[in-house]
């Protein structure tokens, strides 16, 4: 990210830890470098995203290796993985339908796991990547692209135009605004909820640092775990609802 979007100055790796008394809820530069004469930063968000993605990749490799040697009588790890996959399959199938869900379960499952781990990464001492609009907005745009890919694929351009002109032709501009508001509303909802928890925890550690021992763990459980899981579910449910709406009776 460009330096103008960051708080002043470059900081050390210690500022990646959200619970550090000296750190704030602002995005900070961890490393700086120059490119074509412009000073750029590797930010706390970039570091957090890299850590989250590294955890997911390592977990995927471990699961893949374990599943290749899966036992007929599954162990604890295999049972947990199979239950998680089955739960995601059931969630997508029940919302999109058994006929089409296999086409979208990989995408929904991927963003579900990524958003969930990003939201709860505060428990690992990271600044949640989803507290940065630069992360949630691309997620909203990807969902927007999939929604309209499905719309054009199953309803054809004529059907898309017809739906935009319902219930009356002069409703077209309003329907267009509503369509383009989808990625903004989805991304802002996720971003605002996660950022609010990050700000509250930063204020608690900054203002009550003398007495902030043990009891903030309960707040972390709410803002990072409970609220994070709820926002993950909401984002994925909205994605599935929009896709299902475009599928219609197909």
Write out key terms for the chains shown.
single chain, 250 residues, mainly alpha, 6 helices, 2 strands, 66% helix, globular, proton-transporting ATP synthase activity, rotational mechanism, cell membrane, ATP synthase subunit a, CF(0), transmembrane helix
Can you describe this structure?
The chain has helices at 44-68, 76-96, 101-120, 133-164, 172-207, 216-247; strands spanning 29-35, 38-43. It is mostly helical and 250 residues long. It has one domain. A two-stranded antiparallel ribbon has the order 1-2. InterPro entries: ATP_syn_F0_a_bact/chloroplast, ATP_synth_F0_asu, ATP_synth_F0_asu_AS, F0_ATP_A_sf. Keywords: ATP synthesis, Cell membrane, CF(0), Hydrogen ion transport, Ion transport, Membrane, Transmembrane, Transmembrane helix, Transport.
Sum this structure up briefly.
With 250 residues, the protein is mainly α. 66% of the residues lie in helices and 5% in strands. It has 6 helices and 2 strands, in the order E-E-H-H-H-H-H-H.
- Give, in spatial order, the strands making up the sheet with the most strands: 1-2
Q: What is the terminal separation in angstroms?
A: 43 Å
- The level of helicity is 55-70%
> Helices and strands, in N-to-C order?
EEHHHHHH
The chain-level mean pLDDT equals: 82
Number of domains: 1
Q: What characteristic shape results from the CA principal axes?
A: globular
**Which band does the percent of strand residues land in?**
5-15%
Uncertain residue segments: 1-23
The chain-level structural class is mainly alpha
The strand count comes to 2
> Using only CA atoms, what is the Rg?
21 Å
Largest sheet: 2 strands, antiparallel
Individual helix count: 6
